[in-house]
Design a protein that fits this description.
The complex is a heterotrimer of chains A (440), B (149) and C (180). Chain A has 440 residues and is mainly alpha-helical. Chain A is 78% helix and 0% strand. Chain A has helices at 2-21, 26-39, 45-51, 54-71, 75-86, 91-108, 111-129, 134-149, 156-165, 169-175, 177-195, 203-214, 218-221, 225-243, 248-255, 267-282, 286-292, 295-313, 316-327, 331-349, 351-365, 372-385, 394-405, 412-438. Chain A is globular, with a radius of gyration of 22 Å. Chain B has 149 residues and is an alpha/beta fold. Chain B has a single domain (2-148), classed as 3-Layer(aba) Sandwich (Rossmann fold), CATH 3.40.50. Chain B is built from five helices and five strands. Chain B has helices at residues 11-27, 39-53, 59-85, 101-109, 132-137; strands spanning 2-6, 30-37, 91-98, 114-120, 145-148. Chain B has a five-stranded parallel β-sheet with strand order 3-2-1-4-5. In chain B, helix 2 crosses helix 3 (59-85). The radius of gyration of chain B is 16 Å and the shape is elongated. With 180 residues, chain C is of the alpha/beta class. Chain C folds into two domains: 3-34; 39-179, 3-Layer(aba) Sandwich (Rossmann fold), CATH 3.40.50.620. Chain C contains six helices and five strands, in the order αβαβααβαβαβ. Chain C has helices at 3-28, 58-64, 79-88, 91-118, 134-140, 164-172, and strands at 44-49, 70-78, 122-130, 145-148, 177-179. In chain C, helix 6 links the parallel strand 4 (145-148) and strand 5 (177-179). The mean pLDDT of chain C is 80. Classes of the chains: A mainly alpha (440), B alpha/beta (149), C alpha/beta (180). At the B-C interface, helix 1 and strand 5 of B face helix 2, helix 6 and strand 5 of C. Strand 5 of chain B pairs antiparallel with strand 5 of chain C.
């Protein structure tokens, strides 16, 4: 057993190092690590099925299908052009509006897709206005991570936490969304304080921008009007189903008396039902849509679950939990440790692998304390910790990567300065609010 | 032969000019770049800007400035096309008139001087819809009309 | 390039590299990119014919002669018309109609091909029953230019507008279109 534990730890550390460095594709690194622990029998088949969280994987899968189908309609380009036009030629309004739209879209769809689709338009607008695009881009990153933290489906760490702890969509809305609204306001104030002065333009430049943007026709972006309408309808349906997913039996029971009122749907089921409806209704070619599913991401999750599963199987996680329990006096103290550890660690490792490792630990702490507040502490730390460094969350990497391709350099250190400031302020505010709610 | 190219400031009309120059080389023809400016467009834009920005006290001034901008930008556009094709051995001239777009184009195109009219398939609003201009003038233009993309 | 910058590049490639390329392409769908500013060589020109297109005008031929291209003439009879006739008439009469129509088409194709060859064009001819819009769009994929008569697929209407089928073809093909 000693040997097994040693190997599990070695594989874990080695894989996470590979993931941080990314010289090998992260999903390949995760699969390789998983292959090793499976091959030597640390994680037998029955345990493997238990450790791989299909709730997370199926939810991601369903949302990927919906988003990729909707993308074909030009929905996101439409949103981007509308947002740019709403700003009416004022750079600071562009910054604020794009931040808010990014946050809202990220709250319901995945962050990577959101920033992938909004960044080209943001760069275009910055170019038209002849302004330094960096303030817009970093604000977009922060907004995406804060928005994603607000809901169960907004950010992978939340999906993983919800699936494992059995939390509902509305619990996220109650406990996290208010924090994120306040953090957004603070973020915008901070960004205004830092970059506001560099964003002045005169009336003529304003007019030039309005004119250029008026030449862009948002309706021209809609390549498929009927698919556009169907996508909007299905996304709205899925989101409203999320709001009632745990009580759906009660509601269905009114119309269909044979449905058990106690029935509830898992978020993953809601996403896959939505995917099925959209595929059926839109008659898009399933081959094309399924091809666009980000399989590497799904295998990345699968591999991580198994590697962390090896730590659980060999008892490493429970020994760490035991040490923690001995040294932690109260729930509030545990919340403090979880929040800040998750925030700082996820700025370094990327929040997905960090959350994968933290979840079983918190389950183990449940033996002696109420872990319900700890889930929110973990979510807060993991999601907002992503803001700290250029590699803290996928959205950061994507935006900075796009910028680099377009010849705009956002260096690691430049980002770190602003990112760490945002991390500490937003996490501190969030922690304060959770503390007032659960530890007072 | 003379070839008339309709220029509206979009990238597609630049491409139309490209086609026309290529054709002119082969047919030893002359290219005329042609644009129509409609004052109503400047009025509409000024009005839009004023309702959006709330700065309305200088509406008249904006209209004038936009009108001047429109003239300047279409001149720039035509000049840049001409300079791009300078040295290719094609006679290339420009003509900008004011008035209603449809009527002015038809008047020019059907004057009997031209053996070919060239236009872009799309206007400034992008690639999703065919240029509205084509529907308006397509039937009434007498010479052959080349629609490029 | 420092470690951090190459690290971000590696991560970007893994997370979003190829997806970003396809998204950029989508954006370019409504903004023309600089690399599109060239003219492909025109080697084959599609010229659809039907009952309403009797001839190719001299002006149009003059333009087409600028290209050293093969002209494919295609005479298309509408499937729907044949179906309708089959319902209205007995099969004998439909066959007769079809034979007449075919004869007319062959004659037209021959006449126009002869005219073209006289002017030094090389030609190909085809005749089939199909859809006047969809089939032309499909055939256009293997040609470099299309030349459409204003009256194509329009009937004997007297107004001066372009046939709606022609406008729709212009919208859907990805090659330059000459309307004559």
């Amino acid at each position: 057993m000693e040997m097994m534990a040693l190997i599990a730890v070695a594989v874990f550390l080695f894989t996470y190092a590979l993931i941080i460095d990314e010289r090998i594709h992260r999903s390949v690194a995760a699969m390789l690590g998983a292959a090793i622990v499976v091959f030597i029998g640390v994680v037998p088949w029955e345990a493997l099925l238990r450790h791989v969280d299909f709730g997370t994987i199926f939810l991601l899968l369903g949302m990927m299908i919906i988003v990729n189908t909707a993308r074909g309609s030009g929905l996101f380009e439409y949103i981007a052009i509308r947002t740019a036009k709403l700003a009416k030629g004022s750079p600071i309004r562009v910054l604020i509006l794009f931040a808010i739209v990014t946050a809202i879209v990220s709250a319901f769809l995945d962050n990577v897709t959101t920033v992938l689709l909004l960044t080209p338009m943001l760069l275009y607008v910055a170019r038209v206005m002849n302004l330094n695009p960096i303030p817009f881009l970093v604000t977009e990153i922060f907004a995406s991570n804060i928005g994603g933290a607000a809901t169960l489906i907004g950010d992978p760490p939340n999906i993983m936490i919800a699936s494992s702890a059995g939390l509902t969509f509305n619990e996220f809305i109650i406990h996290l969304a208010p924090i994120m609204v306040i953090d957004m306001v603070i973020l915008l104030l901070m960004m205004y304080a830092i970059y506001g002065r560099s964003m002045k333009v005169n009336a003529e430049e304003r007019q030039e921008m309005v004119r250029t943007l008026n030449n862009l026709d948002e309706r021209a972006a809609i390549t498929d009007r009927s698919l556009f309408n169907k996508s909007v309808a299905v996304i709205a349906l899925v989101v409203s189903l999320f709001f009632i997913h745990d009580r759906i039996g009660e509601i269905l029971n009114f119309v269909l008396p044979f449905v058990d009122p106690a029935m509830g749907l898992e978020p993953a089921e809601v996403a896959l039902i939505g995917a099925a409806i959209l595929l059926f209704w839109s008659r898009q070619s399933p081959e094309e849509i399924f091809e666009k599913i980000e399989w590497p991401a799904l295998f990345f999750f699968g591999g991580l679950f198994i590697i962390v599963g090896a730590l659980v199987e060999t008892g490493i996680i429970s020994s760490i939990a035991a040490v923690m329990i001995e040294n932690v006096g109260s729930t509030g103290e545990a919340m403090f440790i979880v929040t800040w550890f998750a925030a700082i660690a996820s700025a370094i490792v990327d929040n997905i692998p960090l959350t994968a490792a933290m979840i079983p630990l918190i389950h183990d702490l449940g033996a002696t304390m109420d872990v319900y507040p700890l889930w929110w502490a973990l979510s807060l730390g993991a999601c907002l910790g992503g803001n700290g460094t250029a590699i803290g969350a996928s959205a950061n990497v994507v935006v900075i990567g796009i910028a680099e391709r377009e010849g705009i350099d956002i260096t690691f250190v430049d980002f770190l300065k602003v990112g760490m400031l945002v991390l500490f302020v937003t996490v501190a505010v969030g922690f304060g609010m959770l503390w007032l709610k659960f530890a007072m | 032969m003379k070839i008339l190219v309709l220029i509206d400031g979009s990238k597609w009309s630049q491409k139309a000019a490209l086609h026309a120059v290529e054709m002119a080389k082969r047919k030893d023809a002359e290219v005329v770049l042609f644009s129509v400016l409609d004052i109503m467009e400047a009025k509409a834009m000024a009005f839009n800007f004023c309702t959006q920005s709330g700065i309305c006290d200088q509406l008249k001034g904006y209209e004038g400035r936009i009108w001047k901008d429109m003239q300047k930008s279409i001149e720039d556009d035509q000049n840049s096309i001409i300079s791009r094709h300078r040295g290719e051995g094609v006679r290339c001239s420009s003509k900008i008139v004011e008035g209603s777009i449809r009527e002015e184009i038809l008047k020019e195109a059907n004057s009997g001087e031209y053996g070919l009219i060239v236009m872009g398939a799309f206007g400034r609003s992008g690639k999703a819809r065919i240029s509205a201009l084509l529907e308006q003038i397509g039937g009434a233009i007498k010479p052959p009309l080349l629609v490029v993309r | 390039m420092g470690y951090s910058s190459s690290l971000i590049q590696r991560k970007f490639k893994d997370i979003a590299g190829r997806r970003y390329d396809s998204i950029l392409k989508d954006y370019r769908e409504f903004m023309l990119a600089d690399e599109e500013m060239f003219i492909p060589e025109i080697r084959s020109i599609l010229v659809p014919l039907d009952l309403f297109v009797q001839d190719i005008t001299d002006e149009a031929l003059d333009v087409l002669s600028a290209y050293d291209a093969t002209i494919s003439l295609a005479y298309i009879t509408d499937t729907e018309v044949i179906k309708l006739l089959e319902q209205a008439l007995d099969s004998e009469s439909t066959k007769e109609f079809q034979a007449k129509k075919e004869e007319y088409g062959q004659k037209l194709l021959k006449r126009i091909a002869a005219k073209l060859e006289e002017r030094g064009f090389s030609t190909q001819t085809r005749m089939f029953v199909g859809h006047k819009g969809d089939d032309v769009v499909r055939m256009a994929k293997s040609h470099d230019m299309i030349a459409l008569c204003r009256r194509y697929a329009d009937g004997e209407s007297t107004d001066v507008s372009v046939s709606p089928v022609v406008l729709r073809i212009c919208q859907r093909v990805e090659i330059p279109a000459l309307i004559y």
